[in-house]
Design goal:
This is APC family permease. It is found in: Cell membrane. This protein is mostly helical and 473 residues long. The chain is built from 18 helices and 2 strands. Strands 1-2 form a two-stranded antiparallel ribbon. A hairpin with a 2-residue loop joins strand 1 and strand 2. Helix 5 packs across helix 18 and helix 16 packs across helix 18.
Length: 473
């Protein structure tokens, strides 16, 4: 693959249209008209961590990314836990993405009745997961071509939606409580500290996924530079898209409308599509459907490539490192991720729709954890080069550490917040805690247990010792 292919995969892995649909209502409920400012503020730690990914990849182009780098910088235990977190993010989110793709796809073609049928959606979602996994196994080039088409389609649809919404606001043709955009909306602190914390966590979820480009480093031309640059540029493109659409949505709908539908999550875009585009609402519905469809495929990539890298280093059984001889893809690890994600989706979906939303909230904790680990690993890895000038100090040390500090702060604040079950989307207590925190703790505990079992079965990986990075190319 080339740079543009990697960029398309990095963008699609974040699922821009789906991410906006999922977070815009809850975000406005927290911070009001300052939603664009919070999206801007959320970009800062993402850019700093993306920079860490770039420089670590230059020195060690490994498809295991965080797993490999943290192992070399901080030791095997931290590396294994980082790799486990990446794998579990795929398990948590793949089913939800496929479910949204199916739901919005049915709405786009006018099959509203089928979209509201839980059993039909569940069956089609499982079929879609299997199809996207098959495309991943078929080959990276096939996946990249598919992703190029999808990213162009969803960005085009979002641009049309935002342009029409803003035009109707300024011409007084809006059907809701329109308000003209103002520069003050870019102030992330306008709603106060507690609201900003929750808003930033939603923003981190919205940006998450760009590192899929780096997970394909061993399948990309110029592996030392192209994947890292694709990751950085993915965050920049996302910033422009998120801020523009957030301005358009808040201006057209007003804060009361969006906040009142915060619990509906991505369904708020289905309602807005009809309000803004009328009979052309299928444009936005198609954008969300293609966004979730693309991300269903690309989210499998980091989890499967991380499992492959872990198996090569004997942190997982050797079978996970199997490469399809004809297609050159990690078929075993891909189907393992698929099977686990499918089972998780079916079980959680049968519990309730709220449980599915809670599992996505738990996802944000795993994201903050392994991103923060990567930033710390970058500073430790390059520690002997930090005093060579302002450039190395800022890019290799201070920047990644600031990004990690921001994410650790968000992680701690979020754990404290989720300990109260009233803050869960289902407002339901599991063992006296919020459901998202219980899910995150369960996955973390399972990871520790599996790590100890693997270490007892084969301790070769845990005999590795952290070291200092070689000179990056």
């Amino acid at each position: 693959m080339g740079f543009l292919d990697a960029l398309a995969i990095g963008l699609n892995a974040t699922s821009p249209a789906y991410s906006l649909a999922a977070v815009i209502g809850p975000l406005v409920a927290l911070v009001g008209v300052h939603a664009p400012g919070v999206m801007l503020a959320s970009f800062v730690p993402m850019l700093l961590i993306a920079s860490a990914f770039h420089f670590l990849n230059r020195a060690d182009p490994d498809c295991g990314t965080t797993f490999s780098w943290v192992t070399r910088a901080l030791g095997p235990t931290a590396g294994w836990l980082g790799g486990w977190a990446i794998a579990m993010t795929g398990v948590l989110v793949v089913g939800s993405l496929a479910d949204v793709a199916v739901g919005f796809g049915l709405l786009a073609v006018g099959a509203d009745g089928l979209a509201g049928n839980s059993l039909v959606r569940e069956a089609l979602t499982v079929v879609l997961i299997l199809l996207m996994s098959w495309l991943c196994v078929r080959g990276t080039e096939v996946s990249a071509r598919f992703q190029n088409v999808l990213v162009l389609l969803q960005v085009l649809c979002l641009v049309v939606f935002a342009a029409v919404a803003v035009y109707r606001v300024y011409t007084g043709r809006g059907s809701l409580d329109a308000v003209r955009p103002a520069a003050g909306w870019l102030d992330p602190f306008g709603a106060g500290g507690p609201a900003l914390t929750g808003g930033l966590l939603l923003g981190v979820f919205a940006y998450w996924g760009w590192e899929s480009a780096v997970n394909l480093t061993e399948e990309t031309k110029d592996p030392a530079n192209a994947p890292g640059r694709a990751g950085i540029w993915s965050t920049v493109v996302l910033l422009a898209t998120y801020v523009a659409v957030a301005f358009a949505v808040v201006a057209y709908a007003g804060t009361a409308y969006l906040a009142g539908r915060a619990d509906a999550e991505e369904d708020v875009f289905a309602a807005l599509a009809r309000e803004v585009l009328g009979g052309w609402d299928w444009i936005l519905l198609l954008a969300v459907a293609t966004s979730a469809l693309a991300s269903t495929q690309t989210t499998i990539i980091p989890a499967s490539r991380t499992a492959l890298s872990m198996a090569r280093r004997r942190a997982l059984p050797a079978g996970f490192a199997h490469i399809d001889a004809r297609r050159g893809t990690p078929s075993t690890s891909t189907w393992w991720v698929t099977a686990t994600a499918t089972v998780w989706y079916v079980v959680i979906h049968r519990i309730s729709e709220n449980a599915l939303a809670d599992s996505l909230t738990a996802l944000s904790l795993l994201i903050a954890f392994y991103y923060a680990l990567t930033g710390i690993a970058c500073a430790v890895w390059y520690r002997r080069r930090l005093m060579r000038g302002p450039g190395p100090f800022l890019l290799l040390g201070a920047g990644p550490l600031v990004g990690s500090a921001l994410l650790i702060w968000l992680l701690v604040e979020s754990v404290a917040d989720m300990a109260d079950p009233e803050n869960a989307s289902s407002a339901t207590a599991w063992f006296g805690l919020g459901a998202p925190l219980v899910i995150a703790l369960f996955l973390a505990g399972a990871g520790v247990v599996l790590m100890l079992l693997r270490r007892a079965a084969s301790g070769a990986f845990w005999r590795e010792r952290p070291g200092v990075a070689p000179e990056a190319p």
